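Continuing the batch. This is chain 6 of the set; chains 1 through 5 are on the previous pages. Same settings as before, nothing changed between runs. Recording input and output for traceability.
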Amino acid sequence: MNVVNIHEAKTNLSKLVEQAALGESFIIAKAGKPMVKVVAMEAPTGKKMRRRGFLAGQIKVPDNFDTMFQQEIEEMFYGKK
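Output for chain 6:
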């Protein structure tokens, strides 16, 4: 995230506001200390909102998922019986 000091923000306010409107939020700092964060009014928070269940019905989990390869795993840890 871009950090600008107050003087730079005053000088380039129009450009910074346009960038923020396109989703590139920025922070205004005073003497190196962050003071405010500028974001677009309709900007999504985070990279992208994740939707639960958007792959519902597209993935099949086998019935034996919890015991798949159990014998091979036991042999790796305990050796062959």
